[in-house]
């Protein structure tokens, strides 16, 4: 028998290994096995299937070990991986790398092992060799990193080499499990003192060590109030030291015990829904259930603050009571912190969160809890689609239009929303998309009958949508001719809003202080050494940063071209807005929410909670403040630079601008008040702004769908975008043109490009791009993907193009 095994590498196809007779029972699909690849590299691969077809062209190696008694992933996960690899043009190994927590993806680590036959006489060794040999004698085996620590140097290889030659040690490649359960030290009372008589005898006859006595009394108090006592808790409460605790352990009064505990704290499991749906919500709820009986996917199009989350909660309740699991997907981690509190209130410990800010150990624990069915609801970002659900009933994809659902780099470049539809079909589960501004593709699928469509066009409590006031910044004259950041009208409105004890959100889609600096004399703009982009000045850290490769530079005071030291700051980011607000409103509490301010795992949550508790008056932010957040007290929203959203060289520019501006305006006036939105622009006559003023999604959709049809863009076509990268410009240009020419005979009508992108160099690699606009014909698209992969292989066989990197991106957003 043989096994097809997926290993976490970008291999074009899966390899086959031989199953040794003694492992036939143990090797099951979904289990991890240890295999050898190449000379001496070892990997933990996942068994995809077992079969009896002997490979034709090579002699398969044997599987070395089975690492799991039970499968780590289910059959549905393996099917999802296979579909994802085929649809998004990558390998199953790359999908496996994205899907599994790091602790499941083992690869070899070089380990040095002591040779017992050498003995303990190290007199023939020099100083460094002696240090390593002595450490090996004690520990028997060391990792390379540990040898480096022993030597206090990174040059461990020469020393190890000499020790191997002298037969002091040898090297072996071994797989090491890196997941370790979290341990907590508990303190227990010696069972003989459970007898009250003995305990009071001990306390009454205590003569020495008053500190130990205090510690023991603290322990007895804690055991009564808390139940179980941890060492850290006891020492904190009693103010005692480790030595005093050790004294009681040595006297055999207390016992220390180490136990494995959960890294994540869970609430008690219970379902309690303490609200009733409004008439309109109830109607929408019934329509969704009816739609699910006819079609597996339904789109809920509800205006901002129409109460979509309450409908989700009612739906979740139904599936939980049937014993099913529910996946609730959100595009941004920032949204999870607010919604998790709402869901925990109703579902307690049935719910878990999964996203990239969790440590690898925490991910393993959530993985196992989902796998054994302990967690019924998972709230997560796009990667939560990979968890091992065993009884999935419903996937909710909230704010489904959001581009954050699409993975950009590395492969698999999948869209979590679209993958959810395929994954749900494997379980016969339902999918609910929800948004106030659905993507054109989803809305088109709904109005043409592919998905169900339910609309909720009134805000909860019949609160009106906010009025949008457009401010023409061309009419405002600035002394230094710079762009208007905060217009006098907006400043006045912020002042009035704060005086009424209401809150303000200001939205600017650029972080940093100033997107670029210009020399006043010669017009030189500081640029990144590795990318063709200007550097953004961050005042808080006093650095120039490239937002493409992340390289930081010291701030510039002298122009590199003319030597002048007068620089003008052009345009503005969130940092600069925050600074001006602090000048204008010194007594107002102002905070900023962007990638630079929310670094840690709980940073989003802390900021959002402070804003909810009204400890912040004005919140300035990038897209993070736009989507799905629900604040009762926000009365004013300011969109500071609408022009920055309306001028992108992208066919989706109007759709995106509408979605962002409509979503951010939806944060205003969510309870009693109507709220107000002020939008600053230099083109108040832009047709899209008139549509936004009326909150008119349908008109935007009708206008855009016509131009998409005319220019053959999605939803009428499928896009495959190819990026070519190389460190030499002429090589990448020639490679891209040769590649395009090889496909022209068959797909000439569908090819756009190749051409240089607007930013044609990133991380020292020159770029070329090419787009294929294919008809919605599954057979043709599948064939085209195969031809592209074949042509990539052909191009890489030519010596001059061997190192050209080609990145395919299917359904590019």
Describe the structure.
The chain is an alpha/beta fold and 813 residues long. It is 35% helix and 22% strand. The protein has 24 helices and 34 strands. The strands form eight sheets. It has a seven-stranded parallel beta sheet with strand order 14-15-13-16-17-12-18, sandwiched between helices. It has a six-stranded parallel beta sheet with strand order 19-29-28-20-27-26, sandwiched between helices. Strands 2-1-4-3-5 form a five-stranded antiparallel beta sheet. Helix 3 (127-139) crosses helix 5, helix 10 packs across helix 11 and helix 12 crosses helix 18. The longest helix has 20 residues, at 778-797. The protein starts with a strand and ends with a strand. 39% of the residues are buried. The model has no long low-confidence stretch (mean pLDDT 85).
- The count of strands amounts to 34
Strand percentage lies at: 15-25%
Radius of gyration (CA) equals 31 Å
Query: Which outline best applies?
Result: globular
Helix content: 25-40%
Span between termini: 44 Å
Give the uncertain stretches in residue-range form.
Answer: none
**Main β-sheet, spatial strand arrangement:** 14-15-13-16-17-12-18
Please summarize what this structure is.
This protein has 813 residues and is α/β, with parallel strands linked by helices.
